[in-house]
Amino acid sequence: MDENRKIKLGISIGDLNGIGCEVALKTFQDSRMLDFCTPIFFASSKTIAAQTKALHMDVRYNGIQEASKAIDGKLNVVNVWKEIPNLQFGEATEEAGAYAIKSLKAAVEALKIGDIDVLVTAPINKNNIQSEEFKFPGHTDYLAEELEGESLMFMVTDELKVGLLTDHLAVKDAPAAINPILIRTKVRTIEKSLTMDFGVRSPKIALLGINPHSGDNGTIGKEDEEILKPVIKEMSDAGHLVFGPYAADSFFGSDSFKNFDAILAAYHDQGLIPFKTLSFGNGVNYTAGLNKVRTSPDHGTAYEIAGKGKADHSSFKEAVFSAIRIFKNRTEYAELTENVLQKQRARR
Q: What's the predicted TM-score (pTM) here?
């Protein structure tokens, strides 16, 4: 990669009635951010104008018809549609959901063909995005189908990284979804991401137990004894630095997480509640394991403050920086491994 070339950073705008546009615009209202990347919003110039007017923001942007025409040093807006959607801040409308998906689909298509290098997604509402054309519980599942690789919901900060064995499943369905194949796949995905995306040479990973107290030797559920422990032993014997299962209720409070490069939680809230408690405002949701880089802030649409100009853009800004860092780390890793392969071939 040419070191002088700016990374083209695509942004899907999320729910127009939430805080997505606000936190994205606030991030790039600081012109210094344009030194790090070329931002490309997928919406329309009229839509962004309506948002900035409603939020009393002064943001200059460059309207374009396709992402490949983006200009460095400017905030670019791809005109995905021509009309002006109705703004009803704080309301979960079907219209807002439809435009969120239009933006997402256009951004993902640009990502697939290389018109943008990375994607940062603003928050969506998982209810109003559903339609005949879009039947996914969220970004991660859609991206897993559209892109190559094994997806993993990976919540990250510099100090804490939490992956999920199961993500958007009802708590009652999570244990039945956990099996040896899933565990092996997720562990390997985390290992690969830590090495390729974060520069960790020998990743050390902790697995949290499925049941309270990791089942208490089968007294409180048998999943930990019958599923988790055998796979952990198998992978450990094969050379993987995998440990556990650890009782989730005390793992984070005792600072045990600091002894590991990443933690793999059994289900959504088991991992995300402690993650957001410890890092809210600085955390990033990263879809690891895919052939393209996608990040997002660690919060939702926040309808209760939408349109009031009160939204904190710290997490969105961190999502931007994380996407840039991961892309650069991946590029460097690819170059280093390619050089090693070339040297090995030359010796032959």
A: 0.90
